[in-house]
Amino acid sequence: MTTVLRFGRVEIAPAVRRVRVDGREVPLGGRAFDVLAALVERRDRIVTKDELLAAAWPDVIVEDNNLQVQISALRRALGHDAIATIAGRGYLLRLEPDRTAPSADAAVGLPAPVTSLVGREAELAELAGMLEHRRLVTLVGVGGIGKTSLALALARSAAGRYRDGAWFADLSQLADPQLVPASVASVLGVEDVPGTPPLELIRHHVAPRQPLLVLDNCEHLLRACGELAHALLQAAPEIVLVATSREPLHIAGEATFHVPTLRTPDARQPMAAEALREFAAVRVFLDRAVAAHAGFALAPDNADAVAQICRDVDGIPLALELAAARVRTVPVSAIAQRLADRFRVLKSSDPTALPRHQTLRATLDWSYELLSRPEQTLLRRLSACAGGFTLDAAEAIGEGIDEGEEDVLDLLGHLVDKSLVVIDARSERYRLLETVRQYALERLAQAGEESAARASHLRYFAQLARSATDDELSGLRQPEWQLRFEHERDNFLAMHAHGRDAEDGAAACLALAGMFRWLPLTQHAHWHAVCEEALAHPGAQEATPARSRALVAACFLSNVIGRFDEARRFAEEALAIAERTGDVRSRFDAHRELGNVLLALRPPDALAHARAAYAFARANGGDQWIAHGATTMGEAYAAQGRYDLAEPYYAESLERGRGSIGPGDVAVALFNLVLCAAARGAVGKGVAHLREAIPLGDAARATRHAIAVVHSCGMLAALRGDGVPAARLLGASAAVSERHALPLEASVATVTDIAVERARALLDPAAFGATWAAGRALEIDAAFAEACAWLDGIPA
Question: What is the dihedral of CA 347, 350, 353, 356, to 10 degrees?
């Protein structure tokens, strides 16, 4: 007799290698069936890529894309959602088994599922592994994260492993902690004995048994649930407990599992509609949307709105379900537009849902009311932060709410425990989910504390901006400051917004504006507008060193976006203020920026200001100033095509800068030397400089650094006579520079034009055109990899 495994509409007969879907046989290739058999055999866990390759291609080494081809074939045959890709880990069969499911007796104490569990394959697999080694696992997470659904799915999948089945105790409706033992006794079917405490009856009942018991919604009965769990673990050596709570039970032997939000699409990477299905949040939204409106489908015209909804609600399952329910009467684009008022929009019309699950606000009300008064105050104040915050920021903003022996550090720890604040251990930063932050902002306004919280936020981040001196921002600690700025970008923007109306807002906004020229920025026009607004503030009109530094930054940004006349005016005002106030650093920087902007307006005049900056640096500064001044001199000569005069200054910049400026600026000096070498045809020297520059790239300047590497390799390849790599790399650097609005400086453009013509001469017209077009189609990562591969092939 042939054994048939049934998974809903799918039947698999392993012995005869046959697959049927809806009763019809589906033809599968031998490799595809081997992959499917391996997934079926290991259906209770994630299967790694190496395991599948070994199963389908034993003793044969093949490319990874062979496996991807077979996975795609299986998805076409069984349904797109049949096999989940678990990023970085492998694949998981998502088909629900019929005959291999726990028997009705084993799961007798569990409620039947109302909706399917979507997007939690990895979490289920990890929890199943934890249950093999732990007797108490607590699922912790913010309200609406799906703890109950996940715990029930875990219990159903594991019920067959426990001799006395799986049982579920819903404690959400209990208000009296003393009723917890009686409620659990009732669930377990323990007979009441007058005069004997329910806890004692449960202990005797479970002592010889092996059940799996789920204690659901423990957060409001934390002590009682902890005491019950402790007693059961001591009384019954084979009992296993799964608890759900918004914070841990805090008892010995407890293992906590923080239920994450569902993965959402990245706003910075637009995707095709079908590609969005790889994201768990999107799959949940689609599943619930189809349930609400059978005709709903993901399509190119609604994909962006669906992705935006998933991001805006932080991938919280309850919020996704409430948003999807609106699809019945409201287009998804309208839902996405109205999520700024998410607490009004996200409501349920289901009268059977728990009260706190009928609106997004209600579930957060439940969490908020369980906080102590100081915890509530700190949560409200932290909502003033945007994009996360450090412990120092939390202590500054929460100053004055210490109560008893608990300081802000303790209170912050409580909020993390209670799943209202998220901590990223790698970056040592905290954040509120945006949904929690919007709720806390409402509470902040209701408490009349908005102005005070914003004032504390403004003071802290203005001081942070002031602490970033020009010497530090351009020195060896530059990468640290770049990373810090990247992390605090949203907070600095919030500080700028608060500063518009604050009493000391002008000084804060000027301090922020003064940082801009040293830090790696995208969206230059946006930051230029921020800088302009700071300079236009009524309280910022006095001729102070702070205004001078902000004017220098404004000049830099105006120059970058091509507003050269405006940049010149900013630099001239900055120089006048610096000379009047005696601000030595601003005087040096103003000469430098004036020299840079005149390169585009009147190149001969640029040299005079470059000389002034260089002389000023040698008279008043150390190696760092001289390194920057020498770069300005080099650029002034290079703009005139005098690379022979520019090169010694670039070399001095490198020599002086090695121990005084950031690695990114050292790399710039090396790229400048590559340019001079290319202009003189010294390919070997250019290759040596380029090899030294490549490792100096950092995350903050990754795109600019990669473009410089690709462009430099393209120039050198042309000069070396390597036509194909030259055309591809020069085409790639041109296209990427255009996409990022990074035009070539005049000095660079001259040498580039020569290199392009050299590459064109090395190939016939058709080959050059095709190769150039292929290079323009490359993404920057692929172009960078090609450039490095070409460079590696050049003899030392």
Answer: 20
